[in-house]
Specification:
Chain C: Keywords: Membrane, Transmembrane, Transmembrane helix. The complex is a heterotrimer of chains A (426), B (72) and C (65). With 426 residues, chain A is an all-alpha fold. Chain A contains 18 helices and no strands. In chain A, helix 3 crosses helix 8 and helix 10 crosses helix 17. Chain A is globular and about 65 Å long. Chain C has a two-stranded antiparallel sheet with strand order 1-2. In chain C, helix 1 runs antiparallel to helix 2. Classes of the chains: A mainly alpha (426), B mainly alpha (72), C mainly alpha (65).
Chain lengths: 426, 72, 65
């Protein structure tokens, strides 16, 4: 067993153990489990919401998109911060409504805001069903990402499969035990290791291959000038503009089901406002993996798999133990967001689809859904694996496809805001 | 925040369903009718059109009902 | 609507217009980096002071009430 593989497995188990530390006793009810009893403070909230910025898509997908599409990758830099500028104004009202009316999910909000019993329930259920169906591939993407990371660095398909299964069994276990608090604790680790790793990578890779970042871009300017402009092709200006704007609208209008639990968990609205104010500075870090992707343009052949460029360059530059740490950071970007997604899916099913009458029943449906959703996502991964004999995914493509579906759906739902806005005046 | 209620529940549900069908069709049918526009943006455009159209019909029906209603 | 609500709209607009500004879509570099990347990063970072200023003005307006 190689050093990298050992460190990767230790990392997977460590993230799982951290998740369990989120809570000393299992949560007694769904409010406690889903939104941490609405008592989450500023620091924890920071890491919970930062988790939405840095996923496998950001870490590996951004480097891949910069490698294949050049500056087109920059579309991903502003959309979350723009959305935060909108949420800065509306989050307080959403939070207050959530606390006052007991929301735990997006479906709860829609149901309540639509007012009418039949149509309200229908809209809540419909939105919940669409949310679950279209976010499930996003969960699958995280699992596939984990497998791909291990496959890329070890070249071993069996290790990849084992790591996917072990990793996601642990995620299910700590999510069942600790709920949102487990996600929060693992987020501390994820963001800390990822920032360190990204800083190391944007220094080490350009210095190793080109003598520094400015020198690297000067070489790109001479050898691959097209990578520095938006031009005709799949990632042209229209693609850039429409992807950026629709993604910003999606995040700003709380269209993804897993955005709701962190927002509703805040201790007070000031926590949220402070978060949205400072988060854009953190969001600038998305540029780091893009810079690594640009380095790959000079070093790797065009046929290289875009998803793997960050890890491929890492292996060429760093010693095995350091590659192991980078793999752990990459794995964390798969496991931690997956945990948040599971909470989003399961609470929607329990609250807005199955609708059991007792609190206890709702709690068990919720927990059962966590297991079923993860199993289903693993089956989807296994099916694609069986077809291609390797965990395949193109982060930039799949993430765009998966996220555009729920985002459109929820942006549509967001029209409900205007429908009920009379009662929204604070 | 807007001070007036613009549309009812039916137009919103109609907009949601139609836009979602369009996005699914464009995504899974691999249809490239809109060049490099993000399918989400196309779906959102369709949604707005349906919501506005259904909202206008809803308003017209409500006015007609009010006009034909016999006061007791 | 109070004018200070619009302060974060300035960086947001600068970001949304990014793909259509001709001086950004060029092979030239700023500070050794692609122009789009520099423009994006700077305006994203400026969203923070914009929201801080709006937050302060909102608090002051609330206190005056």
């Amino acid at each position: 067993m190689s050093t990298v593989l050992v460190i990767a497995f230790v990392g997977i188990v460590f993230i799982g153990v951290l998740g369990f530390l989120g809570r000393r006793r299992p949560a007694a009810n769904l409010t406690e489990w889903t939104v941490g009893g609405r008592q989450v403070g500023a620091v924890t909230m920071w890491f919970l919401q930062a988790g939405e910025i840095f996923t496998t898509f950001t870490f590996l997908g951004m480097a891949g998109l910069a490698f294949s599409g050049g500056v087109a990758a920059v579309y991903a830099l502003p959309y979350v911060p723009i959305a935060y500028a909108v949420l800065f104004f509306i989050a307080k009202r959403l939070w207050s409504l959530g606390r006052e009316r007991g929301y735990l999910t997006q479906g709860d909000y829609l149901e309540d805001r639509f007012g009418s019993r039949t149509l309200g329930t229908l809209s809540g259920t419909l939105s919940a069903v669409l949310g679950v169906v279209f976010v499930l591939p996003y969960l699958q993407l995280q699992i596939t990402g984990l497998g791909l990371i291990v496959k890329l660095v070890t070249g071993n398909a069996a290790s990849s499969t084992i790591s996917m299964v072990v990793g996601f069994v642990l995620v299910v276990a700590f999510v069942l035990w600790a709920g949102l608090r487990g996600v929060a604790v693992t987020s501390y680790f994820k963001d800390a290791i990822m920032l360190v790793v990204l800083v190391v990578l944007i220094v080490a890779i350009p210095v190793h291959f080109s003598g520094g970042i400015p020198a690297m871009f000067q070489r790109i300017q001479q050898l691959h000038p097209a990578a520095l402009t938006l031009h005709a092709g799949p990632n042209d200006q229209v693609w850039f503009f429409s992807s950026m704007v629709v993604s910003a609208i999606g995040v700003a209008l709380m269209t993804l089901p897993h955005q709701w639990a962190p927002l509703l968990s805040a201790r007070d609205p000031q926590v949220l406002r402070k978060n949205y104010t400072w988060m854009p500075l953190y969001g600038v870090c998305i540029a780091f993996p893009m810079i690594v992707g640009f380095a790959a343009i000079l070093v790797l052949s065009k046929n290289t798999s875009a998803n793997g460029v960050l890890l491929t360059l890492t292996q060429q530059v760093l010693p095995p133990w350091a590659v192991g740490l980078i793999v752990v950071a990459a794995i964390a970007t798969a496991m931690v967001p997956a945990a948040g997604i599971m909470i989003g899916i399961s609470s929607l099913v329990a609250r807005n689809i199955v609708r059991t009458r007792s609190d206890r029943g709702q709690f068990w449906v919720n927990h059962g859904t966590v297991v079923v959703a993860c199993a289903l996502a693993l089956v989807l991964v296994a099916r694609s694996y069986a077809r291609t004999h390797s965990p395949t995914c193109c982060f930039s493509h799949i993430a765009e496809q998966c996220s555009s579906l729920p985002r459109t759906c929820w942006a549509c739902c967001a029209n409900a805001w205007s429908a009920r806005c009379r009662s929204w005046r604070a | 925040m807007l001070r007036k209620r613009l549309v009812g529940k039916v137009p919103i549900l109609a907009g949601l369903i139609v836009a979602e069908v369009v996005v699914i069709w464009l995504t899974f049918g691999k249809i490239h009718l809109f060049g490099t526009w993000n399918v989400g943006m196309v779906g959102l455009g369709v949604n707005v059109v349906v919501v506005v159209g259904a909202g206008l019909i809803e308003r017209a029906l409500a006015q007609r009902t009010a006009a034909t209603a016999v006061p007791e | 609507m109070r004018p200070y609500y619009l302060i974060p709209a300035v960086p947001a607009l600068a970001l949304v217009l990014m793909p259509v500004l001709p001086f950004l879509n060029s092979t030239g570099l700023w500070l050794g980096l692609p122009r789009l990347l520099v423009w994006g990063a700077v305006w994203v970072a400026l969203l923070t002071p914009a929201m801080l200023l709006t937050g302060r003005l909102m608090s002051r307006a609330e206190a005056e009430k």
